[in-house]
Amino acid sequence: MKIRSLEDLKKIKEEAQKRIAVREGHAEYKVVVCMGTCGIASGARQVMAAILDEISKRGLGNVAVSQAGCVGLCDREPLASVEKGSEKVFYGDLNPEKARQIVATHLVNGQIQGEWVVHVER
Ligand code: FES
Q: How many of the other CB atoms lie within 10 Å of CB of 120?
């Protein structure tokens, strides 16, 4: 978006503040995207952007989003985990479409998207 007026700048600022609230909030769910070098090389940034966008579109206020480094599963990148309480579900081989689906299935409906799970900690 090109900034042409003070209104444009305000819009960008509001959007950024919404995203920061999503990243920093204390929430029921925590989503962590692995952003090590191989994660980024295989598309982790696009996955992160899709997750933030889908959460924002759906107006979910119960999710905190953050990033982590390498978790040692290079061949399954891009990776992201969804945590709730003591349960941590790692999803692998992600792309933006799968990431959006995980928001809908896991974060909205509370169901694990089984076929994309690479590891579960309880
Ligand atoms: S950066 Fe992904 S496994 Fe090392």
A: 12
Residue 36 CA, closest ligand 1 atom number: 1
**Pocket residues: Cβ below 6 A from ligand 1:** 34, 36-39, 70-74, 77
Query: What is the CA(55)–ligand 1 centre distance, in A?
Result: 25
Q: pTM of the full predicted structure?
A: 0.79
Per-residue pLDDT 10s for the chain (122 aa) are: 676 888 887 787 777 666 655 556 568 999 999 999 999 999 999 999 999 999 999 999 899 999 999 888 999 999 999 999 999 999 999 999 999 999 999 999 999 999 999 999 99
